[in-house]
Each structure stands twice: as C-alpha cells, then as structure tokens.
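Anyone? Bumping this.
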Amino acid sequence: MSGTTVAPPPASPKTRAPSRSRLTDPAVGVWLAAAAVTALGWITVAARGGDFLTLANVVGILQNCVALGLVAVGQTAVILTGSLDLSVAYLISLGTLVAATTMEDGGVVTAVLAVLALSAAVGLANGLIVTGLKVNAFIATLGTAFILRGWIEDNYTGPAGKVPASFQHLGYDRIGPVPVSLFLLAAVAAAMWLITRRTRFGHHLYATGGDEHAARLSGVRTRRTVIAAHVLCSLCVGAAALFLASRLGAGAPWAGTEARYDLESIAAVVLGGTVLAGGRGGVAGTLGGVLVLAVLDSVFNQLGVDPFFKNVVRGVVIIAAVALYARRGSRRSA
Amino acid sequence: MQATQTMLAMRGVSKSFLGVRVLHGVSLDLAAGEVHALVGENGAGKSTLMKVLAGEHVPDEGSIVLDGTEHAFSHPAQAQTAGIGIIHQEFALLAHRTVAENVFLGREPTRHGLVDRRAMEARTAELLADAGVSGITPRTYVRDLSVARQQTVEIVKALASDVRVLVMDEPTAPLADHEAGLLHDLVRRLAARGLGILYISHRLREVFELSQRITVLKDGRHVTTAHTADTDTDQVVRAMVGRELSAYYPPRAHPDDIGEVRLTVTGGGNDRLRGIDLALRAGEITGIAGLEGSGRTSLARALFGAAPFTGGTMTVGGNALRPRTPRQAIRAGIALVTEDRKAEGLALRQSVRDNALLVTRAVPARGGPPAARELTALLERVRLQARGEDQETRYLSGGNQQKVVIAKWLAARPRVLLFDEPTRGVDVGAKAAIHTLVRELAREGIAVLIVSSELPELIGMSDRILVMSEGRIAGELSAGAAEEDVMRLATTAPSGDPSALSGKDSLA
C-alpha cells in the first residue's frame, strides 16, 4: 500500500475534496436523514388528509425517544470502546421491578439509589468479565442477560410493586408542551457528549476502540476504560428503567424485553454512524439514529401500515445506512 | 564517550516465553547524544529486548538503570514516564483521530477537568515545528497521512512526553530511499539535542552512516558491541550470521536463458498508472524501481488484477487477458507476493500447511492441492525453517513467513511471479535464501518481476530495470546499472505529454 497511498501523481484526477467530509460525516448525515424522513412522513400523511406535524404528534415522537435514547446513549459509550452490551433489556426489566417494589415499601430516593447501584454492579460485572476473563463482549453480556433473566423469572411472575404518584411526575409531567422526561434524556445525552468529547476518559474511549494495542502502548489503561464504559452504559440503562417504571406505574418483567431494547439500541447506535468495531462515532449520531427510528414508527402508526411492512422498512433503513457508511470508509482508505 | 555519560544501562536481561528462552542475560548501555545501533537476524531478540525496555514485557532477570535509578517496568506508561519512548514497526496510531489527539494520547492536557484541545493543538504545532516537520497540521487525521508522515507523528508523539531514550525499531523499513534520508536527518537532530537513540535496522549501510556504536545480538545473546568507526560491514555481518556472506546475489541470467514472452501490457492505465508498456519474459527477472508513490506497487497490483488496469491491452501466455480480479490472474498463472505479508500474504492463525495449500484449494484451475509428500518437498525447496507443518505461521520469523507465502504460490505452478518488496523485514540469512530461490525459479522458466525500494537488492537481482515515476515507466536500464542512474530517472519527472512516454528504450 505504501507505494500507492502517498503523493498522487499530479496528472491523476483522483484528488480528495476536503469540503465533502462534513456532509458525509454520519453524525450529520443521520440528522439529515431524520429531517428527510420527517418531511416524507409529513407529505405522505398530508396526502391522506392527515396532519403529521401537530404539536401533539411531535411531542409524542420525542417522548417515544426517551427510553430508547437513554439506552442507546449508554450503548454508544460501550460500542465506542469496541465492546457491546446485550444485557440491557433484562437489566431494564429488573430495574423497573426493583424500582417499583422498593418504592412500595421504601422511599423514592432509596429506590433510585437501589436501581443505580444495581445497574452499576451489572455494568461492573460486564466490564470485568470482558476485560478480566477476556470473554468476547457478545458472549459475556449474553451470559449476564441469561443470569438476569433467570433472576427475574425466579422472583417475579408478573408486574410487581407500585410507583407512587410523586414519582410518576417523571413520566407524565410537562413543562409547557415539553415532557419532563425529555429533559432527563437531554441531560444524560449532554453529560455523555461532554464525557466522550471533552474529557481524557472520553479520548481514551475512542483510543481503546480505535486500536486497543496502540492505546495501551500510549499509556492508556485500556481495561479500566472498558470497565468504566460498561458501568456508564448500565447507569444510563438504570435511568431508562426508572423512567419506564414511572410510566408503567409498576415494575414489569417484560419492560425491557418486549421493546427489545438490546437490539434496538445497537441498531440506533449503528444507524447513528458509530462503527460496531469501535473508535469512531458518537452520541450526536446516536440521538439522530434514535430519532429516525421514532419518526419511522410514528409515520407507520399514522398510516396504519401492517407490522410486517414496518419491520421490513426498518431493516432496510439500517442495512442501507451501514452499507453507505461502509462505502464511505472504503473509499477513504483506498 | 559512553564511558563518561552513560545514561541508560540494561544489565543481564533474560526473558522466556512459554518456556522458550529468547534473551540470555543481555547487557547494553547508551550515552546521551549517542545513536546506538542494534543489529541481528530476525529472532535474535532485538525487538524483545526493546519491549522489555519499553515496559511491554517484564524481564525474568536483569535490571534497567536510567540516570542512576533502577526501574522495573510493568506497564508501558511507567517506561514512558521514566523517559523511554519507542517507535514500533507497526505504528501505534489511531487512524481516525487527529494528529494532536494521537500525539497527546494518554496524557491529554486538561483545564477545569476537561481536555484542553486548544493547548493540545498549539503544543503539537510547536513540537512539529521543533522537529523541523512541515506539511502536517495538528488537526490532520492520521488516516490522511502517508506512511512516512505517520512515522513522523509517532516520533513527535514520543518527543511530546520528554523522552530521554528513543527506541526506533526498523524505522526505515516502510520508507522509500529519499524518505529514509529525511528520517536520518531527524535522527541526527534528535541525537544532537542530547537524546540517546537505540536504532534497530536490517540496513547496514544506514547503521554505519548513523551510529556511533553497534551491538550485535544473535539467538538472544549479546555477541559484540563495537565502535562504528572501528568495524566494517563484513565484520558485523559475520557476527550476525556467524558466517561470511561473500556473494550477496546469485549470478544473473545468461541471454540464452531468456525465453518467450509470458506477459505483455500495451498502453495499460488506471487512476494511478498511465501508458504502461511492458513485456515479461520467461527466465528473466525484471526489476521495478521508483520512489514511493511512483506507481510501483500499483503496477504489480494491476498485473495481478487486485487494482486492475482500466485501459490498454494485456496478454498472458499469448492469450489476450486483462485480469479484473486476482482470481482471473491466478487462473492464468500469475502470482503476487505482496509487500504486507501479515495482512495480505498469510492467514496468520493457520498452520504452515494450510497457508501453503491456500491457493491450490481455492483455485482448482491451477491443479489440485499437492499431496503431503509433494508439499513437504515444496517447503524444503523454499528452505523453510519451522517446527513443523502444523506450526501457526504467526510464530514464524519474517523470513520464514515470506518463504511460506512463496511456497503457497509455487504450489499453483505460476508462469509469472510478481514480488512486491520480497525481503522487507527479513533478516540477512533468509534474505540470501530468498534471493537464491527467486533466481532458481527464473532459471526454471518463470517470468519474474520484482518491485523493491532497496536499490542494492533491485540492482543485484534484476536482469533489467524499469524505473517508474508519477505512474509511468520513465525509462529502462540494463543489468547492473548504477544506483545514481536509477535515482536520476526516478526523481526526474517525465514531460507532461503522455504520448511521449512510451520511452522504454530511451535511457537504456
């Protein structure tokens, strides 16, 4: 390669246009895609005599982003290091159950702390298994997912606990037209953005995912970085569990699994341009990915499209997006 | 001078991996401002010794004393803090991060707890200017830099942590000659600034140009340390291999040995090549010279269909065929030994046997996989030294890996054999073996093409030399041409008129 990558012959027409790079940046592209999907949805719904961009509908779409958004933001941190978390769905389920049952006989504060502690512990376990036992993240977190499922099935047969009205404010209250929960997502996402982009730990996340060996040789403590990423991810998942508990008013064994937050969150992250192998991407793209999925859902619901078609379109969108990013990547390295 | 100012001393360093002893009580010292060369065949233990120094391996025995303080490193970060920097053969850079982010990786400056990007970029710019580097900005993505520039970033990265000792592991291996010259200048500047430099290289000429002292390792043992001024190449080579290598290159082809035309290209071109006219003949070794980026590698890859020609005509064995994929080329009897054997030549986690059978298993048109006995004969033929045919190729030395790649192609009975940097990162002994083998293959009637950035090798091996420049063949030189003639052609840009550039015989 070295014979070809450098110093393009002046006669050659192949020159790289630097100005192009912003538009092809997936983080920008996915937001453009979200805008495009919204416009398309608006047109199709309007063509059928409906109105897509009503305030109620827009707020509804954003509200639907919250749970998946929280999980996907956490998932981004893990995927950036080149790891992965498949245990998020069961952690959400368990989180809602722990939250609701603790709130029933303890206080709200105790419950929140309990859920966050549980999440941190699961994240720590995931991180330690991945880095210490050197089990591939896919298998490691699948394993913890099974363990969590076993715990849930053994201890809960159906919805359990009761969330007091005071905590349901999180799920249902609005400030003006904006749901309170959206501020939760915004705060978590902003914090994660700051962590990944502006702190040393964030730089090390990218470095570890980009090339673990290189990062280690540069003095980065790669194992701690991966463990911390797993803990961060699980904390975000804990936040999602608290939000869902507040929405549901109780804990439910199916709270995380029915909506398949494990695969959905990975899909949103990848749709947002974060490379599954790690090292490239970020929170901004992930939020775009979540929005695209939410807008698509809303359009389909309004149009009353049958579920099969809906899933096909979602599948096509994800594959097309990643194929597009792959083309971009290979052109750059060519 | 080293007696007055010893800065670093390694004493009696031993190291074993899985019960195999790779270092036997090796000692080495280094003075401030000194370039100390470390030479030895692959597997001699140079890289392991340096990894011990850099904290990547923990030694079983022995000590490291830097500025009078004894250190025991267990993580690269500790060695880095102590002032030891290492430039690996494989760069430790993140392609998708900027130069500044790479330079300060692991020690990003912070302000109010957040990374201070501005300070980071300003300091990187200073360091780049300090090192006399131009053409790299702190915000450039590493993926957009050439290999030579990526290496410069590596060096600047080491300098950013205030290193006292800089270890360079075969830094010129991936560089073309003129880039190597720039690197040598940089090394001298750094030494003049008081850094101690440990310089590992297979290129003895640069070792003699740069170093004040030379240490030779063999089989994990220290053989000798000599002042460069008091020794010569022959002595060093003898110490390295334990024997004299009088004839470096086998004799060239006799005109009668050169037979029919096996492959022709007329007016071949693609986005990196223009107006390529070329004929490869049975029994002849054709050398391709040129600077990095001149299109040498592109030419080999075009002939092999990996980055195919998009224009022009090509014949293979008399039949018109312009391969569009490697598979088509292989079916027609073309083989390419690529310059990056780890990424493109071998399945590193597979055995010697599986690698040697790779091509014949995939492309039945070249005859089925050889029987076990034939395979053993083939591996003997390429003079492979391995623990057995079951050994995973990643455990072989560079030279033996290259022999497996060659065996893989020979199993498919090629008629045209293309080599891109046949002996890159290969030790002296294996180098001579590969050279002899390549000449034997030519003598058996294979048309051979060699691309090499090592001019002595290219001139020593080739029956004629084509010099490339800016994607074209700038001229042809006969066997035994002087290095100056090759360089003159390679560095003189051809005229802008493409039609004036079929000029194959213009400078013969």
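Late reply, but here is one note on the structure posted above: Chain B has two domains: 6-241, 257-340+413-502.
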